[in-house]
Amino acid sequence: MQMTALYAPLLGGLLIGLSALTMLGVLGRITGISGILGGALGGEPNSGWRWAFIAGLVLGQPLALWVSGAPVPAPSAAGWPVIIIAGFLVGFGTRCGGGCTSGHGVCGIGRLAPRSIAATITFIAAGMATVYVGRHLFS
Amino acid sequence: MNALKTVLIPLICGLVFGAGLAISGMTDTRVVLGFLDISGDWNPALLAVMIGALAVTIPGFWLAQKRPRPALAAKFHLPTATNIEPRLLTGALVFGIGWGLYGYCPGPALAALSTLSWQPLLFVAAMAAGIYAERLSRR
User: Fold this and answer.
1) Nearest CA to CA, how far is B99 from chain A (Å)?
2) What distance in Å separates the CA atoms of residue A93 and residue A83, rounded to the nearest whole number?
3) How many folded domains does chain A comprise?
4) pTM, rounded to two decimals
5) Residues of chain B found within 8 Å of residue A20, distances taken between Cβ atoms
6) Which of A34, A135, B109, B123 has minimal Cβ neighbours within 10 Å of its Cβ?
């Protein structure tokens, strides 16, 4: 197991939690990225806050890397067919299942919602099974 | 006042969220796939992120919802569904497969757009197509 430097992920998690708490406590909104993106793309009325959040989300990484001096993560070596299939499944699945790692994993479990706990266990298990099949049965 | 609610606060929350993803390594597909690969050299970073975020959201959401309304909004916009139906689990399953194929969930995919590499651009385009396809499938 790689236990090195878990303070950075813990600190990152605290920032994510603070962001989600501010969104709920101040604006009354659940910070589910797939829901925010789906609402913005789907033309939900009053989506200004959604686009503003997405703009911040995109600019957050360069800000963090500028402060920390860390390098930009290199893209995965996977080819374009894998990227297209993976992206499509992530978009379809998160909307069908009503949430993603943030909406169910951080906010839904944050509200102790049984639906979100069930969804989070399911997508983590499915992700683990997919990696297992891809890395150990097909390579 | 309106610009505060629709632009400034969500923009800052997005920035903090994106920075949290970046410093915790969640925009690096190797870190995420290392968490999902339970048969290899397991990387616990994603678990640490979840613990950090939930340490804020579980007590924070509970406290926030004890107030009659959010600080700057008329009401809390919370999911109303409570049943764990096939649609929820099917969606989570499909999302998990896509997540395990490449290592991006929606937040990190959007945050990685800032690198201007073609991989996150293609992933987000495919994700948007998946979101539209799911919307069409509901009709």
Assistant:
1) 6
2) 15
3) 1
4) 0.96
5) 13, 17, 53, 56-57
6) A135
